[in-house]
Amino acid sequence: MLTHLRALLVSIGGLLALGVVACSGGSSPEATGPSVVATSATTFPPSGTYIADITRDGRAMSIGISVDGSDIAAYACNGADDEAWFFGSESTGRIDIDSRFRDTLEATFDGTDVEGELTVNGVAYPFVATPAQAPAGVYTADTGGVRSTWVRRPDEYAIGVQYSGGVSDHDLEEADRQRLAAEQFRTQVRSRRQLQQAAQLVVLDNGTMGSTINGRAVTPTLVSGSFRLG
Questions:
Q1: What residue numbers bound the domain in which 60 lies?
Q2: Looking at the record's lineage, which domain of life comes first (predicted)?
């Protein structure tokens, strides 16, 4: 009798063990392991300027990003016939701004540099913009309805584009209205802008920046994050 009882207990124990194994198969909702924490951007300092030179498929572009509190002003150009202004704000170290021509600037501050992607005229330029101290930065000046803007690098070399008009707000509104052919229409509008290489940016004897627009002397202004075009 004892022999049969032991055999029965062994059989029951084996079934219970199999049940535990079967129930523990797969993932348990209470299983613990390394947690995945989403990384977040680092907050920008109160003010600063960040500059990058980018080349993509043989196309060159430079960008200067200025920060003033939460305000952002950025300018990108190829030093010849294309440019883009960006105005907006950053949120906890992140930038996501469109230009008037639907160019885009998306970036994140990592505590030192600004890393992201600039898209101008349909071409995407990944970049890493590093901190730059004045007199490096973005400079702009206008006279007689014509504006020139430059990105001055830390090595003191500057590239800039002169904008002489050619596109009205009505053109941009119409580009938005033509939704079925928005990109094509916007490209046509963009091509009507009068853009050319800006005159050289120089340091004057008094330490300020100087240049000319159509032969007229101008004193460019250093762009801060709160700067906005009139």
A1: 47-222
A2: Bacteria
